[in-house]
């Protein structure tokens, strides 16, 4: 995809030794508002880089729908469950497959939720698994999102990452717990377990 000019007529800053360009969150949002970037471009901002969104298939979309329904039933109206919608982080504007954010929904009528609003973020992964375990994980850890799930369709497990650490160039999560068929994933929001979701109902 061609690199679009920023609203002030200057190109985004090139990264030394690469053909990639660094874009700030403010510049990215401005490009979206002005129509320089549209839904048809199918990109998201991850750690200052415009990244092409992975293509989706039926198992991917089906898992998102099931997880969204299960969380909606569990949480009722106490939180907002958003799917594939923008989330504004310090250096990224990802569109996670699912995010649980503070309610009410009306608070996001004019502005996207930010890191402080988000209690859980999830990606459904197949072809994107390596990316979701690396760049996406670092972006979420850098923003100190408390809990990150990878619904791993390849291995049939849900990977739960907790205890984010944002230090230097390699932010990460200190803890990872995998849940397989026959097990249930604890849903922890605001430091409290509010319920569990069976893996067999998330991944068929």
Description:
The structure is a single chain. The chain is an alpha+beta fold and about 200 residues long. About 25% of the residues lie in helices and about 30% in strands. The strands form four sheets. Strands 5-6-7-8-9-10 form a six-stranded mixed sheet. It is globular and about 45 Å long. It starts with 12 loop residues before the first strand and ends with a helix. The model is unreliable at about 1-15 (pLDDT under 50).
Order of helices and strands: EEHEEHEEEHEEEEEH
**Main β-sheet, spatial strand arrangement:** 5-6-7-8-9-10
Beta-strand content bin = 25-35%
DSSP helix fraction: 10-25%
Number of strands: 12
Outline the low-pLDDT stretches.
1-16
Query: What distance separates the N and C termini?
Result: 35 Å
Give the overall silhouette: globular
Report mean pLDDT, rounded to a whole number: 89
Please summarize the sheet with the most strands: 6 strands, mixed
Radius of gyration of CA atoms, rounded to a whole number: 17 Å
Helix-strand category = alpha+beta
What is the number of helices? 4
Blueprint (SSEs and pairs):
Elements (H helix, E strand, L loop, with lengths): L12 E2 L6 E2 L2 H10 L8 E4 L2 E4 L5 H18 L3 E4 L15 E5 L15 E8 L3 H14 L4 E6 L4 E9 L6 E8 L4 E6 L2 E7 H4 L2
Parallel strand pairs: 7-8
Antiparallel strand pairs: 1-2, 3-4, 5-6, 6-7, 8-9, 9-10, 11-12
Task: Give the gist of this structure.
The protein is of the alpha+beta class and 204 residues long. The chain contains four helices and twelve strands.
Give structural attributes.
204 residues, alpha+beta, 4 helices, disordered N terminus
């Amino acid at each position: 995809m061609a690199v679009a000019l920023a609203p002030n007529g200057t190109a985004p800053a090139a990264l030394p030794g690469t053909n990639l360009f660094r874009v700030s969150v403010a510049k990215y949002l401005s490009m979206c508002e002005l129509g320089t970037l549209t839904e048809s471009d199918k990109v998201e901002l991850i750690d200052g880089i415009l990244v092409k969104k992975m293509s989706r298939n039926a198992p991917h979309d089906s898992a998102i729908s099931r997880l969204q329904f299960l969380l909606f039933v569990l949480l009722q109206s106490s939180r907002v469950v958003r799917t594939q919608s923008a989330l504004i982080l310090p250096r990224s504007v990802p569109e996670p497959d699912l995010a649980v954010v503070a309610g009410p929904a009306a608070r996001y009528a004019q502005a996207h939720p930010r890191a402080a609003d988000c209690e859980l973020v999830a990606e459904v992964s197949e072809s994107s698994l390596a990316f979701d375990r690396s760049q996406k994980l670092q972006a979420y850890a850098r923003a100190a999102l408390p809990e990150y799930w990878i619904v791993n369709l390849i291995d049939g497990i849900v990977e739960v990452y907790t205890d984010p650490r944002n230090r230097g160039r390699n932010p990460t999560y200190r803890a990872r717990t995998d849940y397989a068929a026959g097990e249930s994933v604890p849903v922890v929001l605001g430091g409290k377990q509010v319920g569990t979701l069976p893996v067999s109902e998330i991944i068929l």
